[in-house]
Amino acid sequence: MFDTISNKLQNAFKNLRGLGKISESNVSDSLREVRLALLEADVNFKVARDFIERVKTKSLGQEVIESVHPGQQIIKIIHDELVELLGSTNAGLNLSGNPASIMMVGLHGSGKTTSSAKLAKLLTKQGRQPVLVAADVYRPAAMDQLETLGKQLGIPVFLKKGETDVLAIAREAFDFARANNRNTLIFDTAGRLQIDEPLVQELVRLRDLVKPQEILLVLDAATGQEAVNVATHFDQALNITGSILTKLDGDARGGAALSMKAVTGKPIKLAGTGEKLEDFEPFHPERMASRILGMGDVVSLVERAAEAVDEEEAKRLEEKMRKGEFNLEDFLDQLRQMKKLGSLESIVGLLPGGSDMLKGADLNKSEKEFKRMEGMICAMTFKERRQPVILNASRRIRIAKGSGVTVTELNNMLNRFNQMQQMMKKMGKLQKMMMKKGGMP
Ligand code: GDP
Fold first, then answer.
1. CA distance 178 to 426
2. For residue 285, is it within any domain?
3. Would the N or C end of the chain have less CB density within 10 A of its end CB?
């Protein structure tokens, strides 16, 4: 995410860190690099200029000049200003209506339909009962797409194929929501390649009828400055309540995210981070700034882990590890739990310095290795997984064949598993000893 600006800023920081004495000229030199990084990321020119001015003024303040590590202080100032630029805190959704309604607007291809479904999924997880409303009367394909996504999620979709009056659809959608106890309507509206007057007129009429609590503009982050221009237009026409920035997983340079709040005054509320329906998250400026600056995003990682890991199960496994009873079936469980956390790349990317670590690392290889291990264990019978000692030569040949590896590869995996098991046993013993001596809580 935002790799280029992230790398450039981290390079600029290398110089800043070494800064012993602060003077106006050496601060200006260091900040020039930061400014270039912002401009190259397609940050609005004025926004970048004001940003640098603010950082410079604060950097030349008494507190920084007198500090032991002025460079570090400046980095902290840049971090804080970046958080501010991204919107300071997460702007939540206002869902006060009964039913509440959300209008999703945006250009073709921005990710509007996908984000509508992703949002419905997120709200369901938060205990709400959403209904997706197909309000694009010009593109039957968009209706079909929404219908498919709704089915996939088990979330109802209200649609009337052949109806050309979007206001009629909206009225009936409210009746449908009430009759089916749905408390949140998400309107997937029509998009165009470019914003035009007939589209605006239609959206205004729909807005006036629906009176939505939220009008969320869906924007493709990869379009940089253009996304900000689009936002300005939509905001003038509709008075949007915030935006959803999509495709942050791609090669977005960051310009849209970093200029949006300053230029339009409207917060980024949510972010799309991949094609899958779970790749969607509330936009947290603090976490985003830390990710951009290579400081990691441990909070998100812990949140993901809490969602993916079953605590009871974790305790049971820990107990087994300590007693040396951890078998191949448990190992398989662990591999699968880890997968629920996301791809290796996305996990490592959230660690402090993680993006640095990723450079040149062949995660694909590790990911493949995990898959092969999973394949080998899956090819075993339950008994073999629980008691690997019974794995004689003929069983090994069968398993290797079944999982498409050589016997040597299977043997290597089993040897490594044995070593791991020995290690766990030793650690378990050590822990017990320390507990006896009162060395550990
Ligand atoms: P719409 O025309 O605005 O409704 O756009 P769609 O929802 O059909 O999305 C257009 C394309 O962008 C589809 O191929 C989506 O899978 C893709 N897309 C949407 N959001 C994201 C995202 O956050 N990341 C990635 N990588 N692709 C996305």
1. 61
2. yes
3. C
The pLDDT value given to residue 269: 97
> Which structural domain, as residue segments, surrounds residue 167?
100-295
Q: Which atom of ligand 1 is nearest to the CA of 271?
A: 23
**Are residues 230 and 340 both part of a single domain?**
no
User: Do 152 and 234 sit in the same domain of this protein?
Assistant: yes
Q: At what angle do helices 45-59 and 24-40 cross, to 10 degrees?
A: 150
127 annotated as ligand-binding: no
* C-beta separation of 378 from 338 below 8 A: no
439 is in an annotated binding site: no
pTM of the model: 0.74
Does 410 lie in the same domain as 267?
no
Q: Please give the tally of structural domains in the chain.
A: 3
Q: Where are the alpha helices (DSSP H) in 239-293?
A: 255-264, 285-292
Q: Does residue 179 fall inside a structural domain?
A: yes
Residue 86: DSSP 8-state: T
The finding on whether 116 has its CB within 6 A of some atom of ligand 1 is: no
Task: Look up the ipTM and state it.
Answer: 0.98
The pLDDT of residue 179: 95
pLDDT 10s digits, 182-194: 999 999 998 887 7
Residue 361 has pLDDT above 70, yes or no: no
Tell me what the mean pLDDT of segment 25-29 comes to: 83
Question: Are residues 284 and 339 located together in one domain of the fold?
Answer: no
Q: CA of 150: how far to CAs of 108, 155, 364, in Å?
A: 20, 5, 32
Give the pLDDT score at 439.
43
**Does the Cβ of 191 fall within 6 Å of ligand 1?**
yes
